[in-house]
Design a protein that fits this description.
Layout: H1 2-36, E1 38-41, E2 54-61, H2 64-67, E3 70-73, E4 81-84, H3 86-100, E5 101-107, E6 119-131, H4 133-136, E7 142-153, E8 158-169, H5 178-200, H6 205-225
Parallel strand pairs: 1-4, 2-5, 2-6
Antiparallel strand pairs: 3-4, 6-7, 7-8
């Protein structure tokens, strides 16, 4: 009676072993996918711009969502990509607003009630698009960023609602890693966003009208004094 029991035990051990072996490819694939993911904390340098400062006092409202923004892409046909953009885009916007305006301060929320600010600007990153080397057929990444800038006057009244797009790509095909290549492409996109802010902000029709209305009383006063 003991022999059938041995046979059954052996069969069970064999079944368990085969079951484990069948799981090995799945584990290997999962491990491979994790190992192939690209994770980047964007880090770049944003030099000061030589532009004439606008004689305005501006509040730059950067909320927690903007400060900690993280983009994740998990398309079926490519490896997962995660980019931590928050810290670098905060650095860029602070740099640009310091260069563009006579006075600039960073706020976490829109002030309520009266304040001494001329304008308050709330940027929001609304879209990130990414092309990997597999898609571009080149050893480069391409990055598209889209921002929405809501502009308010010192009383909290809306002035403008501006959509701004930016683009960047890897400049060198000989970087050592995907992380370096993706970081470089994203930094280039952020620099492009900075350049568009510097050159395009005053060209927004609503901003031009607001500036004209602001300057009109001063011009009228000068004419009256003459």
């Amino acid at each position: 009676m003991t022999k059938p029991q041995v046979s059954i035990n052996a069969y069970c051990r064999t079944s368990q072993l085969l079951s484990h072996l069948r799981l090995l490819p799945i584990v290997a694939v999962i491990t491979l996918l994790i190992g192939c993911s690209t994770n980047v904390t964007v880090n770049g340098d944003y030099p000061a711009a030589l532009v004439a400062k606008q004689p305005l006092s501006v509040g730059l409202v950067l909320n927690d969502s903007f400060n900690s923004y993280r983009f994740t892409s998990e398309k079926d046909n490519r490896q997962p990509v995660t980019m931590a953009l928050g810290e670098s885009q905060v650095q860029l916007f602070n740099r640009v607003f310091t260069d563009l305006f006579q006075s600039s301060e960073t706020l976490q929320t829109l002030p309520t009630g009266q304040n001494t600010l001329d304008l308050m600007i709330v940027p929001e990153i609304t879209e990130v698009q990414l092309a990997t080397p597999m898609e571009t057929q080149l050893n480069v990444y391409e990055v598209w960023l889209k921002y929405n800038l809501k502009v308010y006057d010192g009383n909290g009244q809306p002035v403008a609602d501006w959509m701004m797009s930016a683009y960047g790509k890897t400049q060198s095909r000989f970087l050592k890693s995907d992380e370096e290549a993706l970081n470089q492409a994203t930094v280039m996109a952020l620099r492009d966003a900075g350049a568009r802010l510097l050159t395009g902000f005053q060209q927004i029709p609503e901003i031009r009208q607001w500036l004209a209305n602001r300057q009109a009383p001063a011009k009228l006063s000068q004419r009256t004094e003459r």
